[in-house]
Each structure stands twice: as C-alpha cells, then as structure tokens.
Amino acid sequence: MASAQQRQTGLRQQPLVLLMVVLVFCSAMVSRLVWMQLLEGPRFKELADENRIRLVPRSPIRGRLLDRKGRVLATSKLTYSLYLEPRLVSDADWPELRNRLASLLNLDPLLLDQRRDRGTDRDGYRTTLMLDLKPEQVLRFREQALGLRGAQVDVDILRFYPHGSLAAHALGYTQPITESEYDTLVEKGYKIRDRIGRTGVEAAYETHLRGKWGGQMLEVNALGEVQRNLGDRPSESGQDLTLTLDLDLQRAAEQALADKPGGAVVALEAKTGAVLALASKPGFDPNFFSKLITTQKEYDALFLNPNKPLLSRAMNPYDPGSTWKPVTAMAGMESGKFPPTTKLQTKACITYGGHCFPDHNGAGFGQIGYADALRFSSNTFFYQVGVGVGSRALKQAANQLGFQQKTGIEIDWEESVGLVGDEDWAENGRGWADPGSTPWIPEDMASASIGQSVVQITPLQLARAYAVFANGGWLVTPHLAKGEIDWMAPQHRRAVLIKPSTLETIRKGLRKVVEDGTGYGLNGDGIPPAAGKTGTAEDSTGGPDHAWFGCYAPYPEGKIVVVAFAQNTPGGGSVHALPMAKKVLAAWEQSRSKG
C-alpha cells in the first residue's frame, strides 16, 4: 500500500514539473526576443541594412600642382581596372568566368587565377584582376557585362606627374595609407583605399589638395544584384595649388646636373625667399608610387639603392669649402677685431697646432684686404681672421645667416640643420664622443675658417645666407607655394644684425670674384652682372672633392640667388659648379627679357 501511494504522488507531481520546464523555456525565449528587439534592435537593423545596402565610394580628384606661370606639374588621370566580387562567384563558376574574361579581353588565364588566389583587396569585398585596361578592353567588357556576373570594371584616379622626375624632391609623391594610419585618418574622412601625400609639397599641403569623398547608395538583393539607387553624393575635388617653382628654371637646373654623379641646384627670389628651382641628383620618378601594384623587388631597387635617389641633396649637409668664407669675413668685421679696412699678409702656409695649413696657390697673395681675399679665395687670409675671432664669434655670424637651423621651408621634415662646430660643441663630445674627451684644437678653428671638416651646410641654407647679401640684410624664409601668405611679414623675414660697412665690404668682394677672380667664367652673353663665390671642399666622409658656387644677380641689388653643388666632382667650383649656375642664370635672364 505504501509503495502504491508513493507512485501516485510522483505521478501527480509530473505535470507540475513539465509546466515549470515549459515556463522556463518560454521565459528564456521571451527574454531573448526582448533583448533582440528592444536592446539590440538598432544594431541588428544596421546589420540587416548592411546586407541589403551597398555603399559605392567615389574618390575625389586631387588638386593639381602648377608652376608659377600656371603650367601643370602634377595632375590626376583616370585608369580602368578589372575586379572580381568573390561573393558572387563560386569555385565551380570561376573557370567559366575566367575563360570568358581571358577570351574577351585577351588576358592570360593563369594570371587571372593567380590574382584571384591572392584574395580580396584591402577594402575586403573585391579582388583586383587587371590594372590599366585599354579603352577597347573597357568597351568590350561593357558590351558583354550582363553575362559576366561577378566581374566589374571600375575607374581609379591616380596621381600623374607629366614631367616624370622633374622637381620630384620638391613635389613629393602620394602613396596608399597604411592600416595603422587608417585607424586615425578614418575620423578625417579617409577611406581604406585612399592615398595620402607622403613627401614634398604633396604631404605639406595634403589638406588643401585632397578633396572629399562622395558615394552612391545602392539597394541589392540576396544575390548582390542592384535593385535601385537610394542616393548619390558627388565627390568634391581638391583645390589646385600654384607653386613658386618656374618650370623653365627647374629644367635648366636639372640639365645642369645631368653629367654630375650627384648634387643640387637651388634658385631663390632674394627678397621673398620664393623657391624658383629645387633640383637634386640622383632623382626618382614619382609616378612609380602611383602604380596600383608594385612588387617588392621594385621597392627594394628604389629604397635600398646605395645612391639614395630619395634623398634631397638640396637639404642634406656637406662641407661648403670656400663658399663659407663670407661668413668668416662677417665674423671678423662684426667682432671688431678685423674691421673692413684690414689687410693681412698671406703666405704659402700657416702652422696651427702640428699642421701647416696651405694657401691653395702654394705661395700666398701678398698683403691683401677682404675684397681681394674673396677674389683670390685666399685660405691663409681667412685662417688668420677665423683663428683671431674664435669659434664662438664664427658661430654667432653663422646663426645670424640662418645656419645650424631649419630654413622654414614647408617640407622641412626632410631638411637637416647641418653643423657649425665650436669649442662648446667639442667640449660636449662632438655629438658622439664622451664629453671633454676631444677638446677644440687650433686645427679645428683653421678648418672651420674655410668651411672644412667641422662645418657642414645644405645648399638651401647657403642660398638663404647669400640672399642676405643680395637683398641688403634680410633673412628670408624659403617657400614653395604661392598664395595669400605675406612672405615679407616679420615672422617670415627678419633683419640680420649686420653693420652696413660689413655688408658692403662682403658685397664688393663677391662682385670682384666674378669681375676678375675665381668666378670670372660666369661672365658672358645673356648673363646679368653678378656677384658670387666659388668653393672646392674636401669630403669629410672620405670621398672625392665637392664643387660649389653661390651667386646672386643682377649686381648690386640682387633679385635671384643661385647655388650650385656638384657632389664628389673633383676639379674645383669654377670648373664644375659655376657652369651649372650659369645655365640657370641664363634661363632666368631669358625669361625676364620676355616679360
């Protein structure tokens, strides 16, 4: 009896247990529905829309770069590419589509297979099969497009430099953004397929040039077929940018460098600092970076090239040699120890420390003053001045002329500040040794006096300094873009604290260099009266000598400054660098005569 009662009690409890189980499941389902509909509803709606709606981005056309006369230096061009949408083409369907594309567009089937096997592009939804299609290929595809489901021909906008490597270091180039850059740039409107100015003016004026993306919103079905257009927003083109560069002068500068192993040419407007030409050799073609696909081998050939074609020699420091002597002259006169009327006895050589420092003619030039010292480029004259005033006075003059500091040019992240050594620099370890281990010695001071060993400057810095002598005492800011900025304003142009007598003495000396000194070769038909200085510098890294020439014209009130630098080209500044500057001056004078 007891066991029967227990069985009846268990049976009576079964419906209650089943009811509880049902209630638990129903509660879970209701909770899940509430969570999905109320709490997560907006997110799921967004995901559904993403499956239903396709956003087709439209890239903006980047603004053009123009020279000072409106001639195009960089623009954009349209190119057509063949793409595959993998979600619309199964492995079974691919062979038929591949063969049709290969036959229709005259493409290699194996190459199409290889491109497909690489997977989707960085945008995550399509694969590039072929770039830069010819017009007839595009027409053939569009005639048969309805039967080529999963394939697509789309237009890309690429940066194009019509003059190739001309002014490449000044213009720079554009390049696709990296994934790490995208994480921060997406907030500024950049897309994963976007390109950004990487160097030069392209980078400095990125915001001005890039424009804004547009797009088209399309509704598609489950097969990815377009049902209707939900909206269209055109892209906004970037703004054009007019540069200070003169295409004719830039060509002349690069032609002047053609037979040199390396070097640079800089031409500036003396009063404003506007850069008329900025050339560097070896160079590169910025169109290389506009290619949609580049192999690692091609990258290595450029970036690992021992000649460093991406390095701008115009903004890299070198031993300046005798082009530095006007700085030493300024230090001597401004210190008061060697006034403008000073005359010194020059010699075959003068001993400092344990070394006899020679004059370049092996005999000296007798007793001479500043003008003849510059005219003949006497080393022993400037040894005496430099050693007499000391390293701090020389460095002070150098700082006044803009050395050992950036020039202010817009692309200054590529610019070196150079070096002007002095006893404090030596005491602090010369930038590499233990402080106090290599003190300043007389030999250092003699070398610094003529721009050797412990002095290294850039061609752009030298052009800026010579502009001070040309324009009457103003340190200008070199710049590459024309526009609304007032480059004559105090923040871009400051007075150099230099005595009028010092300035006049240096100007007269530089003029005598060209009239009947080491720069006499600058004279000739089509060349305005000029003032300048030759320079031959030992390469402190151990290579062959450098050749320099810095000048301004017309004399006395210079309008243009030209600095020519031939890297590791032994033979002297008057032999190699002066003819380079002469070509640029001839082009400038010809342009000026035409108005």
What does this structure look like?
It is elongated, with a radius of gyration of 35 Å. It starts with a helix and ends with a helix. Helices cover 37% and strands 20% of the residues. The strands form eight sheets. Strands 2, 3, 4, 5 and 10 form a five-stranded mixed beta sheet that branches. It is an alpha+beta fold and 595 residues long. The model has no long low-confidence stretch (mean pLDDT 89).
What is the share of helical residues?
25-40%
Rg (CA only):
35 Å
- Using DSSP, what is the number of strands? 23
What's the average pLDDT? 89
Low-confidence stretches: none
Quaternary assembly: single chain
State the separation between the terminal residues, measured CA to CA: 128 Å
Q: Tell me the structural class.
A: alpha+beta
Shape: elongated
Largest sheet: 5 strands, mixed
Instruction: Name the beta content range.
Output: 15-25%
Instruction: State the helix count.
Output: 20
Can you tag this structure with a few keywords?
five-stranded mixed sheet, elongated, five-stranded antiparallel sheet, single chain, 20 helices, about 600 residues, alpha+beta
Strands, helices and their partners?
Blueprint: H1 2-39, H2 41-52, E1 53-58, E2 65-66, E3 72-84, H3 94-105, H4 109-117, E4 127-130, H5 135-143, E5 151-160, H6 168-171, E6 174-176, H7 179-185, E7 195-197, H8 200-204, H9 206-210, E8 214-220, E9 226-233, E10 241-242, H10 247-256, E11 263-269, E12 275-281, H11 296-303, H12 325-335, E13 343-345, E14 349-352, E15 355-358, E16 367-369, H13 370-376, H14 379-389, H15 391-400, E17 419-420, H16 423-427, H17 442-449, E18 455-456, H18 459-471, E19 474-476, E20 493-495, H19 500-516, E21 531-537, E22 546-553, E23 560-566, H20 577-593
Parallel strand pairs: 2-10
Antiparallel strand pairs: 1-8, 2-3, 3-4, 3-5, 6-7, 8-9, 11-12, 11-23, 13-16, 14-15, 17-18, 19-20, 21-22, 22-23
Helix pairs in contact: 10-20, 12-14, 12-15, 12-19, 13-19, 14-17
